[in-house]
Write a structure and sequence with these properties.
Pfam families: Ppx-GppA, Ppx-GppA_III. This protein is an alpha/beta fold and 513 residues long. A five-stranded mixed β-sheet has the order 3-2-1-4-5, sandwiched between helices. Helix 12 runs antiparallel to helix 13, helix 12 crosses helix 16 and helix 13 packs across helix 16.
């Protein structure tokens, strides 16, 4: 059965909250960032920023778990962030975890405690989604021109490379190397030698090499860096006069020589290098030098924007009916040759059933848009047919769970996958085991709405009547059809009677009138 949900979070009435305020929290491998912004006519202005160097990545032990010290440091940081978020509507807050939380074995435990500390849910996003959001944030801070752009972001555990023009990306790449992971691998003993630096650069080049051909083929006019490591490197090169404009390989090689001469991370003395950046600086420099060499980057400018600004913009896009998730769903439908007309008719019926069930089953939450989840599940439930009709619900569930779909976090894909797996045949409750009990129960209710709508439209007859649904005691479902409609549609009646048996197996009753 689903796990017990954590203690309910104390919520504040949204009536007195400023609805124009938005917040984005980036739980990175090296640092946690928070920005607060005010929205006006679809645009945003940052009014507050806060950053803490938590260095979550350094707290991963050999078994892949966050140590107690790192775990607690992260939670305490989120508690401080949570104090600032109390004045912001929960629906306007986006908090995401990246590389370290993607990989930590105990990340789900951290997310549950983090939700309590922060006051809102935290979503883990894929490397591809991280790259998309980085480009979204960076591109909105650049001058309007027709340049093709290479955007690069060095995190604590991963580095992203994105090609795009204007506000649209054309290629997303996320690699498993970051300033912390490279520092740990090559400079863990606080020693910086020419041999170690050359080994680190060679290692980073090896990681990037499989992506080199694609990135160079697409090409770019300008290169933009967007991370603390790149900002620090750019600042040091500028202050020491090692480049006339931006970051260059020549300037970095001079910087690299100074690092080697220092011999120790703690003994690095460079104008512009902050103490908080010192422990991971060598790893970040190795990644950037390797990237310049492999990709033949001549010069790079630094952006003030990054992932968190992308989160704000993505949130505003959802408010103004420009949700990238809808675009991703349509693209998946096209790719898998889904019968979109059938999906639309199923959704039209499902909307009626959802409206009738929404209050009784409490299908509302500040963290989840259940109506949209239902819509996306319906639009994608037949994707697996392109592989094979036999057990196609399993194919559909797998495709969605394993696909990089822009805008969707890992939890949303897990929820959609569970709904698709259970939209026909026997209902497998074990797929909800890793979810909080309250959310799992609502997802089961939502799946029942999906199942009924799919059953009603099995014959692909688009002129069907819309039934009335009522619910008693949460588990008794009554479907009422007009006059003799069921008698005139005996196959649909048989399908619904079969459905009643499936629902009975999980202690629901379905009665037809």
């Amino acid at each position: 059965m689903p796990k017990q949900s954590p203690d309910s979070i104390k919520t504040t009435s949204t009536d007195n909250l400023d609805q124009s305020l938005y917040a984005a929290i980036d739980l990175g491998s090296n640092s946690f960032h928070m920005i607060i912004a005010r929205e006006t006519h679809g645009q945003f202005q940052v009014i507050d920023k806060h950053k803490e160097m938590v260095r979550l990545r350094t707290g991963l032990d050999k078994e892949g778990n966050l140590t107690d010290k790192a775990f607690q440091a992260g939670i305490e940081c989120l508690e401080r962030f949570g104090q600032r978020l109390k004045a912001i509507p929960n629906k306007n807050i986006r908090a995401v975890g990246t590389n370290t939380l993607r990989n930590a074995n105990n990340s789900q435990t951290f997310l549950k405690q983090g939700k309590q500390a922060l006051g809102c849910s935290i979503k883990i996003i894929s490397g591809q989604e991280e790259a998309r959001l980085i480009y979204l944030g960076v591109s909105h801070g650049l001058p309007a021109n027709d340049d093709q752009r290479l955007v690069m972001d060095i995190g604590g555990g991963s580095t992203e490379y994105i090609i795009g023009k204007h506000f649209e990306n054309s290629h997303l790449t996320s690699t498993e190397m970051g300033c912390i992971s490279i520092t740990q691998a090559f400079f863990s003993e606080d020693k910086i030698t020419e041999t170690k630096m050359n080994e680190a650069i060679a290692h980073c080049r090896q990681i990037l090499r499989p992506h080199r051909s694609k990135l160079n083929k697409l090409g770019w006019d300008t290169a933009i860096g967007a991370s603390g490591s790149i900002k620090a490197i750019g600042k040091i090169i500028e202050l020491n006069g090692w480049s006339d404009s931006g970051i260059t390989l020549k300037g970095m090689l001079k910087l690299n020589q100074k690092l080697i001469e220092s011999g120790s991370i703690q003994d690095i003395k460079l104008e512009g290098l902050k103490d908080e950046r010192r422990p991971v600086f060598a790893g970040g420099l190795a990644i950037l030098i390797a990237s310049f060499i492999e990709l033949n980057i001549e010069q790079m400018q630094v952006s003030a924007n990054a992932l968190r600004e992308g989160l704000i913009l993505d949130s505003l896009g959802r408010v103004y009916s420009d949700d990238i998730r809808d675009i991703s769903v349509k693209a998946m439908q096209l790719w898998m040759k889904v019968d979109t007309l059938q999906a639309e008719h199923i959704f039209n019926t499902a909307k009626v059933l959802y409206k009738q069930a929404r209050k009784t089953w409490a299908l509302e939450s500040p963290d989840y848009d259940f109506k949209s989840l239902l819509k996306w599940a319906i639009m994608l439930h037949e994707t697996g047919v392109a592989i094979s009709y036999k057990r196609y619900q399993h194919h559909s569930a797998y495709l969605i769970s394993q696909s990089d779909m822009a805008g969707f976090d890992q939890e949303e894909k897990q929820m959609l996958s569970a709904m698709m797996l259970n939209h026909r045949g026997k209902i497998d409750l074990s797929v909800y085991d890793d979810m909080d009990e309250s959310i799992a129960q609502k997802l089961i209710y939502l799946t029942l709405v999906l199942r009924l709508a799919v059953r009603i439209h099995r014959g692909r007859d688009f002129e069907l009547t819309k039934p009335q649904m009522s619910i008693k005691n949460d588990h008794e479902i009554y479907l009422e059809f007009e006059d003799s409609w069921l008698a005139d549609h005996p196959l649909t009646q048989l399908d619904l009677e079969t459905e009643a048996k499936h629902l009975g197996a999980i202690d629901f009753t379905l009665k037809l009138t």
